[in-house]
Every structure is written in C-alpha cells, then in structure tokens.
Design brief:
Distance between the termini: 24 Å
Number of helices: 5
Structural class: alpha/beta
Largest sheet: 6 strands, mixed
CATH class: Alpha Beta
Number of domains: 1
Strand content: 25-35%
Shape: globular
Oligomer: single chain
Order of helices and strands: EEHEHEHEEEHEHEEEEEEEE
CATH topology: Purple Acid Phosphatase, chain A, domain 2
CATH superfamily: Metallo-dependent phosphatases
Low-confidence stretches: none
Radius of gyration: 16 Å
Number of strands: 16
Length: 233
C-alpha cells in the first residue's frame, strides 16, 4: 500500500490534514491503522464500499468503529453498502462514524457532504451503467460558508457535479483502472474499458483514489493500493 500526500486545492483551512479511505471492501491491511495513527489526520473520510456485502462486512465495520474511536470519521455510501442489506445504515451509525447519506455537516471550517450512489434505488451489476444520484440537496450544501468537500463514491458522476460550487470532490470505485499498462487504465466499474476517471485530480477539483483493496478476484497490475492524505501546509 502506498502512502500518498496531496496538497489541497486553495481555500482549505490552514494546518488541516484529511485522510481518504476508499474501497476498503472489508479487507483491512495491517498497516492501515498504523499509518493513520502516525499521520494524525484532522478527519478520516470514507468514500464508499467500506463493506463488500452481507457475508463480508464485519472487518470493514470493525475498522470503521476503530477509526471513529480515534478520529472524527465521516462515511458516504457506495454501491457495495447496498449489498449488505436493509439494516446497513444502522450498522454504520452504530460504529460512531458520521453517516452522510445525501446530507452534509459543518465542522471546523469544513462543510462535508456525502452523495449516495444511484444504486440505492436500482439493481446493480459489474457492467451496468451507473444510475444518476439525487442532486436535489446540493444547492443547500453549496450555499453554506466554508470549505466544501463532497464524498462521491462514483467518479463517473463528475460531469454532473463539475459546475457546482464545490471545492473538493473525493471519489473511488474505479480501483485505479485495475490494470495500468504503460500508465493506461484498463477497466473500471461504471466506466467500462479504458476509463476516463481512475486516479488523481480531474478538473482541478475531483480526486479519485485508487483505493485500498479490490471487489473482484483479478489482481492489480502496476496499480498499487493507496491511502491518501490531503494537507494544507
């Protein structure tokens, strides 16, 4: 796992350090909590797919609980949360993490929102086009004063979000394109072959993490998992 440090786009509160945990899928590397404890983030931001499904959930929920006991922890919902079952929202809330289910909170000069996957309302599949999210609450989010951060699991939503007054959009889901041959990503769920949004900054405001683990059995090739820290020095 690569530990990556990224400078926040301008406007963020001074001295802040945010950790993004993407696509855990209930597979927790031993070094993950050690890295968080060492870096002492201001907040830990989970951008969906903390769990993998009903049969693979306990390790992800346990790690979320451990994070919430140590740091302010915020969690948005990805498509795999909806494979968990009807009671998954309560399971996440019981960890002590703040669940951002198409809503936002304000804390320490930050306005942190969580955009819930469109798969909350529709069936899903690996090769299905991602259904649109509910954007009706975003005008209220964008009207708040502060540094606005949106946790949006699906990077393919960027075309819907790029014109909103949001300072930073954090996404995952693409797993870095799974295989990166000569730096070219091969496949991402929701985007298909040779996906556009897989790793790093896009449009100066959306950052896509390569994620912590995999939701499929295929190995990553030239595509290390990553834990990302955002800083404003």
């Amino acid at each position: 796992m690569e530990i990556r440090e990224v400078v926040l786009p301008k406007g963020a509160p001074r001295g802040i350090r945010l950790a993004q945990v993407a696509d855990l899928h209930s597979q927790v590397p031993e070094s993950l909590m050690d890295a968080l404890i060492e870096k002492k983030p201001t907040a830990v931001l989970f951008t969906g797919d903390v769990v993998h499904g009903k049969d693979k959930c306990e390790e992800g929920l346990r790690f979320l609980r451990d994070c919430a006991a140590r740091f302010p922890t915020f969690c948005s919902l990805g498509n795999h949360e909806f494979k968990y079952g009807a009671d998954f929202r309560d399971s996440i809330r019981k960890t002590g993490a703040t669940l951002l289910d198409d809503r936002y909170v304000e804390t320490n000069g930050l306005v942190i929102g969580g955009l819930t996957t469109g798969f909350a309302k529709e069936a899903q599949g690996t090769f299905r086009k991602t259904p649109p999210p509910d954007l009706s609450w975003l005008d209220g989010f964008c009207a708040r004063k502060g540094y606005r951060i949106l946790l949006s699991h699906h990077p393919e939503y960027f075309d819907l979000l790029k014109d909103y007054d949001i300072d930073l959009i954090l996404s995952g889901h693409a797993h870095g394109g799974q295989w990166r041959i000569l730096g070219i990503p091969f496949f991402a769920p929701g985007q298909g072959l040779f996906p556009r949004y897989t790793s790093g900054f896009y449009g100066g405001k959306m950052f896509v993490s390569r994620g912590i683990s995999n939701s499929v059995e295929l190995p990553r090739i030239f595509n290390k998992p990553e834990l990302v820290f955002f800083v404003n020095k």
